[in-house]
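hey so i finally got around to running the thing on that chain from the lab meeting. sorry it took forever, my laptop kept dying and i had to restart like 3 times. anyway pasting the input first so we r on the same page abt which one it is
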Amino acid sequence: MQISINEGIEVVDKRLCLLCGSEGGFLYKDLRDRLFSAPGIWNLMYCAKCEFAWLNPFPLFHDIPKLYQVYYTHEDNLSAQETFKRPLSKVRMSELLVTLRKLVRDCALFDLKYKNNAPLFLRMAVKISSLFLPLYQEQIFSLMALTKLKNGKLLDIGCGNGGFLSQMAELDWEVYGVELDKEAISMAKKKEELRIFEGTLQDAQFKEETFDVITMNHVIEHLGDPLQTLEECFRILKKGGKLVVITPNLNSFGHLIFKRACRILEPPRHLYLFSAKSLLKSVEKGGFITSRLQTLARTGGSIYHLSWLIKHYGKVPQNLISKNLEEKYRLLLSRAVFGVFEYFLSHFVSIGEEILMIGVK
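ok and heres what got predicted. didnt touch it at all, straight out
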């Protein structure tokens, strides 16, 4: 294995598909980090047989932290998964929208059995609106679609700043986390005493059949060896336990439209990119039986917005809202139309920006 240097990052050439071993072709060449300006020039390889993509050159494990010097899990107010659906100007959200989200969340908590009641008319209104708007889907999957489980033990891999762990602890889960990023862990521990292991899942050496649920929310695409991690998840899950994975969809509508400018690519932190087909294949290699596999379109609007900025400016500027009023309102309108259109289409075609997979041991 020959090691070379890519702008200060030690890398190796990686041309073979992790899933089938065949040599991949180039999907995109000469990509740079368009979000946080990490160093390096990167390519994406693609295996048509598996519908699977990966970064090449491939960073060595000990240099991966250099790609996360600036990252959104270092913020104290948002968990990693919230970034995709972060409002453009949260402080300007109307009280009406805040109230609406609370009502939708109450319905989601009722459906997941965390609340004992919710008005019937409200539940019906939310279910009807969910055919056209992703608010309900957003709330359900912010909880990883997990129904209440008495004394349930939950492990969140790549828990970031602990936002999801805190949320689930409030819903009476016994929560544990694994995280490599020291700064993200320090942010998590500012909030409350969370049980977070610093290191990889394999380093944590949990006992066999420890957890009822393991979650990976926008994490598997960051892992150097996702198959090894899936096998370890299988070992430490109880029999009948669930693995819940959410990851960007390589076959999403946003990627179809924006190609190399699509936000979901995120070189060089996204080491692997999955389609529903390749994620299913990976999970089955780990020993799991897949009980649910679908795409989610809750982030279509924000993916459109960020991808548009990358396409037109070469990167995402710090100020997401343009000072040009005409451009600002045209972009906001396009974002809304794209988001609603993709969400509606996703009921019939698997083109959502994310893939949800639930595997059972």
